[in-house]
Design goal:
Elements (H helix, E strand, L loop, with lengths): L1 E4 L16 E11 L2 E10 L5 H4 L13 E8 L4 E5 L6 H14 L15 E7 L9 E14 L11 H9 L1 E13 L9 H5 L2 E18 L5 E18 L5 E15 L10
Amino acid sequence: MQTESRVASPQLPPSSDVNASGLLQVEIVDSGAVGLRIKTYYSERNSPTASSQARDPQVSQFAAPDKLVKVSIAADGSASEIKGLDQLSPAQQFAWNDWLGRFTSSMTFPKQGVHAGQKWETSEPETNPSPIALLSWRKKYQYVRDEPCMFDSQPEKTSPAKSSANSSEACAVIFIQSTLRQKSSAKNPTPDDYKLRNLKTRGIAAGQNETILYFSRATGLLVRSTEDAQQSMDVLVALADGSNAVHYTLDAKSHSDIRLLPDSPQSAR
């Protein structure tokens, strides 16, 4: 990210890498026709004490207490009443939000069901705060094929018999290509909350994501998800009278890998 303005400020690093790895356990608090209420417990993975404690099944796998995040999910997959997310680090928040998007993805599929080879499209508004208004994601879906689910990514926690059974279980493979679209004018894409602060913006945003989802045909659960994303923004934020302005340019790439661990220990909380 780069910035330009008349105001002197500490030099920002031209680039940075952020990594997060964790174990997320999900507890269904309530479910019904209108949606779900769930609790999630986020634990750091590969901590100094975790690897040694994991060898003893009678000892909790993680020394540090789990971080609890609550969320309500509507039948259409939209999330609300998120509580506890602020206690996660920025990298952990990114990972949690990435998991939530994958966890609820099937709730946006056609209600009549999908079949191998089927293609469909959706358009979803970008809900994260942005200095550019009217951003949306055009998503192209394809049910590519069925192939064996691969749960044996954690062989140390799975018996050979269990691993063989999971590997032979069929998974539906869904490919999603998402494109960020800007419906506002590049000359004045100012969001309403910026206007209330006597600000005006000018600029463009773009993005391209590719996601692969693996759903168990037997249970409907998300078994694995991988996503590669690339997004950019070039925007000028100025006072309405033009007396001062800040120019931001941002280029970001991310890769995520989410896997279901069927035998994750219940004592981790």
